[in-house]
Amino acid sequence: MPVGKIIKALSGFYYVLYEGHIYQCRGRGNFRKKKVSPLVGDTVEFKAEKQDEGYILSIDKRKNEFVRPPIANVDQALIVTSAANPEFNALLLDRFLVLVEAKRIEPFVVISKMDQLDEGRANDMKVYQQMYESVGYPVILSAVNDAESMEQIRAHLAGRTTVIAGQSGVGKSSLLNTIDPRLSIDTDEISKSLGRGKHTTRHVELYEISGGLVADTPGFSSLEFGDLQLEQLPECFPEFVQVQDDCKFRGCLHNKEPKCAVKHGVEEGDISKQRYEHYLQFLEEIQNRKPRY
To answer: For binding Zn(2+), which residues are annotated in this chain's numbering (predicted)?
Structure first.
């Protein structure tokens, strides 16, 4: 049986890419009995008499999966945040980075709309770029008409399955359209009354772009740390992981414990004070989370 990859799910149909052709398939009934739903990104075995009459027979084991957006087997996350309109928000960026780290997915960051800044704010973004790169995250400062930044983004996409994430209005669809004009993904003006963008993307779909597959998604509709355990949070900050073995206590949460290497790093200026403050906010949020039954 042929083995392909689901690149789109819409209205109960799954569109499977196999040897350059797309097959429209339905899921078999036994998936429902097992409470398993095929996801975009799944590697599947399928059977098809014609291109529009196929059935998915089995789903390969996933290396990761998201619930919102519903997608599996992601290699990396392109997190788009804007320098302006909406304003750059480091707390929101750190929240995205934690959610991606929790899934063991490599992130890289694009700060869009750099062309809308004056020199002072542009320098502020360069300081953020240096700080995040010191943590280990690639950061690209981007403008839609900047060919060099677009080429850098294309190089990151080659040969990988990438999910694109970021709040509404930061220019995710515009970015993809610039990288590959064949896409013509719907974009929308910023909703001025709300100060944020309207959701223009309606379903999850993988596009072949720059030698890789890129998911333009309806956004991470849940930015809550629903499944993240307290002890997992420090592991989502790479700069904490680098020094945690020097903490006095094993399993240190880097909060009120004495002789904490992370707190020492913040005091010495080796760890970003702002990132650490965001960590404490997330820690409190998880501690105060209502239990699910």
So the answer is: 247, 252, 254, 260
170 appears as a binding residue in the annotation = yes
167 is in an annotated binding site: yes
CA–CA dist 54, 246 (Å, integer): 56
As for how many domains the chain has, the answer is 3
pTM of the model: 0.85
117 and 200 in a single domain? The answer is yes
Q: Is 252 annotated as a binding residue?
A: yes
Look at residues 185, 216, 247 and tell me which one is the last residue of a structural domain.
216
pLDDT of 131: 97
How many Å apart are CA 259 and CA 257, to the nearest integer? Answer: 7
* Residue 221 annotated as lining a ligand binding site: no
Given this model, what pLDDT does residue 220 score?
Answer: 61
Q: Is 272 annotated as a binding residue?
A: no
Binding residue per annotation — 236?
A: no
Q: Is 114 annotated in some ligand binding site?
A: yes
pLDDT, average across residues 197-212: 72
Residue 189, pLDDT > 60, answer no
Residue 41 is assigned to a ligand binding site: no
- Assess if residue 223 is contained within a domain: no
172 annotated among ligand-binding-site residues: yes
pLDDT tens profile 72-92: 999 999 999 999 999 999 999
